[in-house]
Amino acid sequence: MMPADPTRNILIVDDNPNNLGVLSDFLWDMGFEVLVARDGESALQKTQYAVPDLILLDVMMPGIDGFETCRRLKAQPATRDIPVIFMTALSESAHKVKGLSLGAVDYITKPFQQDEVLARVKLHLKLHTLNQTLAEQNLRLQREVETRKAAEAALQSLNQELESRVAARTQELSQALEDLKQAQVQMVQGEKMAALGQLVAGIAHEINNPINFIHGNVNHADTYVQDLLELLTLYQAEFPQATPTIQTKAQELDAGFLQEDLPKVLTSMKIGANRIRGIVQSLRNFSRISGPESKPVNIHEGIDSTLMILNSRLKTQPNQVAIEVIKDYGDLPLVDCYPGQLNQVFMNLLVNAIDALEDHLSQDPSPPTSPIIRISTAVMNEHQITICIANNGPSIPEPIRKQLFNPFFTTKPVGKGTGLGLSISRQIIAEIHQGSLQCHSSPAQGTEFVIQIPNSQGKQ
To answer: Is it true that 9-128 and 291-454 share their CATH fold?
Structure first.
């Protein structure tokens, strides 16, 4: 492992002394100059007299948290260009998105992996140096352009050459920024899918064991009850004249009703247990994490498992009618795909459809037509299938429709949407499955999202 440049200064901000000690010792051993702060206020004060080259900033701290600290750093000319890497827990994907939108360049998950910390620190120090170099070069180029514009007409051709160089460099920087945004989206998607898959799989596993126990034993209980009821019937036939004590107890318990209703209760318990087992299976289907290779799956099972998870949002709500789901499934073959990521696309599109219909129903609780989500699938040709998810809610205006798939674009209120769902969905369909995701919307037809993917990866 090569030692770091000893002139590089790193400020670590964390209210946990253990974290501070581990990180500062490790980075000091790697050759960095290290400053530490226990809260955001202290960090801001330290940057006034010792400007660091990079800041490792914890999210949750007393006083002002990491987000406010980052916002204040980015508001000051002397510190706004310092790379900020947030330190946060694996499950805090919403925090990561918020941090990136405030100007942070990256995040490190807890518990720390020293190799990962060192790699990310070195990477962003290098990027920071490159950005400073590019900024200085661009400034020099601008000055050259201004000087040459004031020169004689004989130098006009050289002015044009320099302007072309500036345009080319600007294009390179724009492309680099776009690449960085896409890389950030991919990182957030990976963390989000991993956390969601682990959560759903864990819930399914925890429910599965006790429900299997109940399901297995209710059958035995049914057999035992039938045997006891048969024995009771035999007693009543052989000894029709019960003792007064038994007659009194039979009247108190309403023995006739118990004999009639107990089998019905056990049947209801069986139905309920089977229903829970079906829900657990849907959760397990939905949480399948795709491996490095695609595999053939039943697309309809993925859609059905997603609908099962969203079932509570489709039912009748207070002051709101139920949302009807119409499934028009075609005769699809097993499709070679990455099921976990494809299920995430179904989830994003269905949640957006439900949100749109709920917003419309909140404005008009008794619409002229019932709210409907229509899901249809079909084979397009020998190599491709299509999946359409449509709703009969209000249409999407053209200016908004053009931005739907842009990262971080959202029309939802703050806290309800990150603006990443559709961007990630198009990336999953276009880049991972070599397909396409399009949106069609009109006042007469509502809104429809159309997915087209190959039925076998590598075939178009």
So the answer is: no
What CATH class does 9-128 carry?
Answer: alpha beta
Which pLDDT tens digit goes with each residue over 39-57?
989 989 989 888 899 999 9
Output the pLDDT for position 262. Answer: 80
Q: Where are the domains of the chain?
A: 9-128, 200-284, 291-454
**CA dihedral for 405, 407, 409, 415, sign (positive or negative):** positive
pLDDT, residue 199, reads: 63
In this structure, what token pair is assigned to residue 11? Answer: 């400020």
Say how many CA atoms lie within 13 Å of 59 toward its Cβ.
22
For tokens 């799956």, the residue is: 297
Q: How many CB atoms lie within 10 A of CB 70?
A: 24
Sign of CA dihedral 110, 116, 118, 121: negative
Q: How far apart, in whole angstroms, are the C-alpha atoms of residue 54 and residue 33?
A: 11
Listed residue (69, 9, 63) closest to 36, CA to CA: 9
* CATH code for the part of the protein at 291-454: 3.30.565.10
Query: What residue ranges of the chain have pLDDT lower than 70?
Result: 1-7, 90-93, 153-154, 181-205, 271-272, 275, 277-292, 318, 365, 368, 407-409, 411-420, 457-460
Q: Are 73 and 83 in contact (CB under 8 A)?
A: no
Q: Give pLDDT, residue 334.
A: 92
Q: β-strand 372-379 against 324-328: which pairing, if any?
A: parallel
Structure tokens at 29: 């051993």
